[in-house]
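anyone seen this seq b4? input:
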Amino acid sequence: MRDTDREFLKELVRLDISQTDCTAVRKVFEACPDVKDTLANPLVTNDEKRGIIEKLFPQSMHNFLLNTVRGGATERIEEILDEYENLLIDKQGSIKAVVRYVTPLTEAQQADLRQFIMEKFVKDDVDIEYKHDPDIIGGFILNAGDLEYDKSYRTGLRLMKDTLQTKAAEYVDGGMTAKTGSNSDIISVLKTEVRDFEVKSGATETGFVTRLGDGIARVYGMNSVMYGELVEFETGIRGIVQNLEEKSVGVVLLGDDHGLTEGSSVIRTGKRAGIGVSDELLGRVVDALGSPIDGLGQIKADDYFPIEREAPGVIERKPVNVPLQTGILAIDSMFPIGRGQRELIIGDRQTGKTSIAVDTIINQKEQDVICIYVAIGQKSSTVAQIVNTLKKYGAMDYTVVVCASASDPAPFQYIAPYSGTAIAEYFMSKGRDVLIVYDDLSKHAVAYRAMSLLLHRPPGREAYPGDVFYLHSRLLERSSRLDDEHGGGSLTALPIIETLAGDISAYIPTNVISITDGQIFLESELFNSGLRPAVNYGLSVSRVGGAAQTKAMKKASGNLRIDLAQFKEMEIFTQFSSELDQSTTELLDHGRMLTELLKQPLYNPLPHYEQVILLYAAQHDFFKGIPLKELREYRTDLMNYIRSYGQDIITEIEENKVLTDDLAERIERILTAFEE
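predicted toks r here
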């Protein structure tokens, strides 16, 4: 309310205007809408306006109306009266109530109702308005204050329908697969529902829509509602409370607003937004609310996890020292990822960011790791291709895909990563290791920006709201490795961020870089030159480092990153030189061999033992003198040879994860034998 309007409100309080006079003013405006326009018209003189006011309105309201007209507040007179009436009701100790009915209440029923409301709200008086509403079929609905007592037949029938549908889903699953005696069970359920029909409804805290548009509803009332709580609109769609203001709340709609209008009622559910979870989610594609979108039937939920949850504390965690193998040689050797870590994949579009994530998911086969892939703002066709790829390589058996496509509203794209994390936490709570991929958080931030601007939150840098850092930090902080006392599970996150022209200093990239434990930076120039995965070895880093590597991998990789850095620097330095000494030539040849060795085709993750053997061979010059064009075929033949004649070496590497001197000697012998 404006300061000038507050002064007019104070004047009403000082004059002690009655409720009757306020009602009289409203009736004049309702009966003659032109009166307000005339009073607001600057071409009409003050004397003419005074004459209209004195002729049409109660005498006690003359000064108030004249002052509001002179102060330019004519359009807001009714709003000021609303505020004054609320003050009047509080002052008088009475309360407004509305009763919707089909069959009129008797005088005795009305008296009982009045007494009930006065006792419930501890008021001396109550103003009850009765409205005939045939749509509720039977019974009545009482609205008093912020509470709604729904004893209507319409609500009872809806609740009965929901219960019967739930029971039917338990008995029928893709056909008539009911238990023995299911017919009698169904009859029993029907009898119970009919018997409890009158008891189903109860008191709920309600509000009503005051403004609606662009997937956002402004709701008046519901004074005790929580941030992030689910609310239900009268059309059946749900929303999440995002703004808490003095007299209203901002709600984002989780669905189409068809059928909703200003004045539509809203009911609290009493629970925060969450998602139904169970083991049946594995192998399925679901939307941001957990509903299946793959056409494979319903998913029965065993538990309910809130999408927003406090991250585990430091005491509950244990060190990240168990590797999560990606199967990508360049990453596992130089930028290792541990279970419970958050490793950012960042780069321009079309540089292979999603491919790294998909390869990592495929590599978790038989590794006892559950995978969650969250697609945010992607094309539905792109998500379908990824799902088909995962099915082709047998990865969907242990994967859940959460999809909020580009065609979905911004609220769905906003909650999708939180829903995916809730699913991941369900499996983590059972002691499982989980990998979650957020593809991508750039589009997530854009969706949140759109939603926040519609909620009238002030824009900041690049029009993002001020809490956009908290948006991603509270999401990624939930990734952790829990100690044995808290289940021993882990949640590893691979967030993806898309940059523009390689600018990692932009707002969202710098935010997420500062939240994560390292980044894998993919470069367009490297990708176009044929180096794939196009990892920039200088800008990429893992802050967990060697702690997340096996001893065998740590020893085999040696100084790989330093060798590549020296090669890159020397290559730039010598590109215009005509004559090079032998040591420089050997350094360049070794660097080119390593670069070629790190190239890896799509959907071809390497097992741990193969990475160790190849790196050991490269660092000990077993690939020296082999033409680069023949290196890929040579390494394929080498590994086939070792699988045939060195199975004991493979077994020892996989079981012990340690490269002992004896094992290194045996590797050298078999490499020499292959050369010969």
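Residues 203-273 form a domain with the Elongation Factor Tu (Ef-tu); domain 3 fold (CATH 2.40.30.20). Confidence is low (pLDDT under 50) at residues 176-181. kinda curious what u guys think
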